Amino acid sequence: MLIEPGASFWEGMSVVIPICLLSLIALRLRVLDTKGTFLAAVAGILIGIFGGPSWLVILLFFLITSYLATRFKYECKQRRGIAEGNGGTRRTSNVFYNGLVPTLIAVFSAGIGEGAAWLYITAIAAAASDTFASEIGVLSNRVYMITNPARNSMTSNPAMRIYPGVDGGVSALGTVAAFTASFVISLLGWILIPWAIGISRTLPMLILPAVLGFVGCNIDSLLGATLESRKLINKGQVNLTAIIISTLLMVPFI
User: Fold this and answer.
1) 3-state SS assignment for residue 170
2) In sequence order, which residues have a C-beta less than 8 Å from that of residue 44 and are 6 or more positions away?
3) Is residue 10 in a domain?
4) Cα 33 from chain centroid?
5) Is residue 154 scored above 50 in pLDDT?
6) Residue 157 and residue 151: Cα distance in Å, rounded?
7) pLDDT at 130 over 70
8) Cα 185 from Cα 63, distance rounded (Å)
9) Distance from C-alpha of 31 to C-alpha of 60, rounded to nearest angstrom
10) How many domains does one find in the chain?
11) Is residue 204 situated within a structural domain?
């Protein structure tokens, strides 16, 4: 925890002021819409206070890289009709559904104990994995439905392909992007958080969040192909459910 009980006003401001400044920059650059920026600022303050600076760095890294992934070949995505938001600006719903679980983990981290750090990393890894799978995978011309076994053989049969951006669609490009994003977040967390709070690093704690974050991405695709495609839940609820499941899968290992 960055701010201990009884901390001074200025210690609190050491978290609030930088986050407010970063929020103004994000708003100016249209990284998030207005409500999304406010919500991200609240989440950042809570994570900074209850988790600590290293937790906040991981969150900021996720937000920045997600925006860059959204902006990557944006004009191409726009021509295909699958671009995110307005000029790549991510909406309030993106912030809420991707940030809820990590924020709650940070807030209750004192009660959870040291294992909270690994749950937090897993939750961010799952969110990053799905974001990169969506933003990079849609650039592939070979997209298959995750529920179609034929895609596992990487068939080139055009009849078995689906249009990029369809709920539940997966591709080799998106799969590589998803695992890479999950691993990078896991690696960053594995380096920063133990160094900051003095817990030990082990190889399983590098591998598990990366793998489970990637699993969460695939759960997202599976829910997209089934429940979301039937309009039973929306995209945000799919994201949230996948993050919750991947994080819960980490619980037995902490």
Assistant:
1) strand
2) 19, 22, 23, 56, 59, 60
3) no
4) 18
5) no
6) 10
7) yes
8) 11
9) 12
10) 1
11) yes
In this prediction, residues 38-49 reach a mean pLDDT of 91
pLDDT at 97: 94
Q: Is residue 69 a part of any domain in this protein?
A: yes
Q: Are 242 and 125 in contact (CB under 8 A)?
A: no
pLDDT confidence of residue 99: 93
What φ, ψ does residue 183 adopt, rounded to 5°? Answer: -70, -40
Which residue's entry shows tokens 């055009």? 158
In a domain, 180, yes or no: yes
What is the pLDDT averaged over residues 50-55? 89
Write the secondary structure of 81-124 as one string of H (helix), E (strand) and C (coil). Answer: CCCCCECCEECHHHHHHHHHHHHHHHHCHHHHCCHHHHHHHHHH
What per-residue confidence (pLDDT) applies to 7? 47
- Estimate the crossing angle of helix 92-107 against helix 53-71, to 10 degrees: 160
Asked whether the predicted pLDDT for residue 4 surpasses 50, the reply is: no
Among all chains, which residue has been given the structure tokens 């104990």?
A: 113
The count of residues in the chain is 254
Higher pLDDT, 152 or 231: 231
